[in-house]
Amino acid sequence: MFAHRAVSGALGVFLLAATALGGVYLLITQYLQLAKGLSPLQAGLWVLPAAALLVLVSTASPIAVRRIRPGRLIAAGLAVQLVVGSVPPQKAGAASGLATTCSDLGISLGIAVIGSIATAVYRGQVTGELPGGLPPEAAAASRDSLGGAVTAAQALPGELAAAVLAPARTAFASGLTTEAVIAAVIAAAAAVPALRRLGHIPPTGSTPGR
């Protein structure tokens, strides 16, 4: 199935798209709860529009794939329908499994690679901004992550806790911004192979040469 140009091209684009989204979603939920102080329920409600959009795209995609060339459609964010629809019916189950594996791998890569970059930005910025006089354990926890800073601040006096949280939240926001820019670049780059490798494929169900 990897020798099939549509399958390999779509899976490559799907991997890049999942990588772009994986780390961003993880940090956004942390930002909403740790930096903005929202409850898990409130944070969930804030990301609900994104989930609703995914449902809408999944519902509309079977219609869109019959009217729009797959390369153009995938460049806008669709991959799964083409992976499954480009192989013989008896291999549809295997193709679906490949798409799922690609999604899981991409999300894991996004968390590991892009998330590591965001963490490095956080640590590089927060280290020089923490107030003096912090207990060594609190300073180490605050430099490690925003979650560590929040936990450490809970055991500190009010003014000192605020002096820890302010730079930690700012540094985390910088890391999230950097991660979002990288994710946007990856997503834009995914459109190139979508158009080059899949642009020749006509809409599903169209007559040859259309």
Which features characterize this protein?
210 residues; mainly alpha; 8 helices; 77% helix; membrane; cell membrane; transmembrane helix; transport; MFS_trans_sf
What is the topological layout?
Blueprint: H1 5-35, H2 40-64, H3 70-75, H4 80-85, H5 92-126, H6 136-144, H7 146-153, H8 158-198
Organism: Planomonospora sphaerica
Transmembrane segments: 46-65
Protein name: MFS transporter
Distance between the termini: 25 Å
Rg, rounded, reads 22 Å
Q: Give the overall form.
A: elongated
Instruction: Average the pLDDT over all residues and give the rounded result.
Output: 76
Number of domains: 1
Annotation, overall tally of beta strands: 0
Strand content: under 5%
What structural class should be given to the helix and strand makeup? Answer: mainly alpha
Order of helices and strands: HHHHHHHH
**Unreliable parts:** 82-88
Q: How many individual helices?
A: 8
Helical proportion? over 70%
Main pleated sheet: none
Membrane topology: Multi-pass membrane protein
Subcellular location: Cell membrane
Protein name: MFS transporter
Keywords: Cell membrane, Membrane, Transmembrane, Transmembrane helix, Transport
